[in-house]
Write a structure and sequence with these properties.
Elements: H1 2-10, H2 15-37, H3 42-69
Helix pairs in contact: 1-2, 1-3, 2-3
Length: about 70
């Protein structure tokens, strides 16, 4: 995620691929999170990890928006 953000800021030739990889990894992470929330300790997982997932998602969306501005 950090590399994708840096490459987007630099407008490098790798930026688009890095953003796509970041989005794919975020989607995978969200799927794993949703599966974990359905488990025995779901509320604990949601409480401990939910905010971080939302922050990461907001960061990826912001990065994608920065890329569209240019």
């Amino acid at each position: 995620f950090e590399i994708a953000s840096e490459e987007t800021d630099k407008k490098s030739v790798y930026a688009e691929d890095d953003r796509q990889a970041a989005r794919e990894e975020l989607d995978s992470l969200k799927e794993a999170f949703e599966a974990a929330v359905q488990g025995a300790n779901g509320e604990e997982v949601r409480r401990r990890v939910g905010n971080r997932i939302r922050e990461l998602e907001q960061g990826v969306v912001a990065m994608e928006e920065r890329a569209m501005e240019d």
